[in-house]
């Protein structure tokens, strides 16, 4: 019978954040940090002119 090697439990579990993550809380899954970065980047994008024009037209029609 072959001896089994002890399972290394020092490795982090899949989907767990690193302890030194600056953007996430300790224990949050890694994907939450990437999702937050993506969301923040989308918020920083300028509003397209066509969308701003549409909002202006809707505001004008709503005021009548």
TrEMBL record:
Residues 1-32 are annotated as: Disordered. InterPro entries: NepR. Residues 1-10, 17-29 have a biased composition (Basic and acidic residues). Residues 29-61 form the Anti-sigma factor NepR domain. Pfam families: NepR. This is Anti-sigma factor NepR domain-containing protein. It comes from Aurantiacibacter atlanticus.
């Amino acid at each position: 019978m072959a001896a089994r090697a002890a399972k290394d439990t020092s490795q982090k579990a899949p989907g767990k954040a690193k302890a030194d993550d600056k953007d996430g809380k300790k224990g949050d899954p890694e994907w939450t940090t990437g999702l937050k970065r993506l969301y923040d980047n989308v918020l920083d994008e300028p509003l397209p002119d066509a969308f701003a024009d549409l909002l202006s037209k809707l505001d004008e029609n709503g005021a009548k």
